[in-house]
Predict the 3D structure of the following.
Amino acid sequence: MRKVSIFGATGSIGQNTLDLIARTPEAYDVVALTGGRNVAQLAKDAQAVDADLAVTAFEDELQPLREALSGTGIEAAAGEAALIEAADRPADWVMSAIVGAAGLAPGFRALRRGLTLALANKESLVTAGPLLMAEAQAHDATILPVDSEHSAVFQALVGEDMDAVERIIITASGGALRDWPVERLAEATVEDAGAHPNWEMGQRITIDSASMFNKAMELIETKEFFGVRPDQIEAVIHPQSIIHALVGFADGALMAQLGPPDMRHAIGYALHYPDRRDLPVERLDLAELATLEFRAPCDTRYPALRIARGVMETGGHAGAVFTAAKEIALDGFLAGRIKFTQMAEVVEGTLDAISRDLRLHDAIETLETVLETDHLARVRAEEQVKDRQGHG
Ligand code: NDP
């Protein structure tokens, strides 16, 4: 039996992971499940998989969690320290699917056990990629990417020599506003930007798809995870979202990974790696699909891609600043304080403003520094939002 823990079990990735585990429960011994505010779901899932421990990230949710688990024999705990303690528990495979900067510390801690970390939390690689990869190496741990694009690249690279890799191409649906005239983008509402053409995801990541801040994060993740140069990474718009990524080799060959837009593929690949097992995902009918289209993304429509290139070139603290500023800009857009097109201005303005506080390109040496930079960037980004509120 494999011992598994799921951090962020109540979220979209966590629920898809539980869906796969529930299909062969006899194969898994679930050690810990963690969640945030949705303690009813957490308690229900912990009972369904007979977990040893359920942790909510928030202390004020401990009482409701205890009550929901009373009489089950499942341990309940709460708070950041409890999340770290859960990451210390012996497991063979851990899913890192907490959203945001809160996902960093438990993922880092789990790596110390030399296990396999299935990494969905994008922020870990974007803000602290070099630290994370070094931590995995130091403890002989394996990180498997769960973002569908990086899982696709990983799969295309099996058995290949990294020295023969010329380029990595990450595909993007183009998001909800991809066919809008550029001059109308400033008018886009939260509802307009929140209607993803292919993937069913939460509101924040869907709006990040429309602005391509999500893709921008993925370009940075690609650099950090696969250790390639920024000029080897390309993004291409592929409206059908069937090809998730391609790897180009020195002989001109392109290896692509195709699949329906269903996160259970990338999660299942990471769960069963290095084996391939039956997964409950739709099988593609190529004749029915008939056409796969591609087009180059335009920097005027998607300034996030240009900003990401700058972040990759700078390295150091730039990823942490970028991530934090993007979150604050998105909050500002969701709250109606800034326009859709002003999100990129806020992120760029924050990167510029913060370079007066710290040397962006300096290497990040500890997790604490990442969190300090995250905090400072949020303050500067909030100033950028305020400056624009009501203007534009
Ligand atoms: P969700 O918002 O659906 O779920 C997030 C999870 O984190 C929930 O379990 C939530 O708990 C928990 N959580 C929220 N705040 C905190 C906190 N402060 N401390 C600890 N836990 C917290 O996110 P997704 O599942 O969509 O995404 C998870 C990660 O995976 C993100 O980094 C995302 O970018 C990445 N990702 C997601 C993809 C997708 O298709 N959804 C694709 C590729 C990557 P609760 O709900 O109980 O409050």
In short: Residues 8-14, 35-38, 57, 97-99, 102, 120-123, 147, 201-202, 205, 263 surround NDP (CB under 6 Å). The first strand starts at residue 2 and ends at 7.
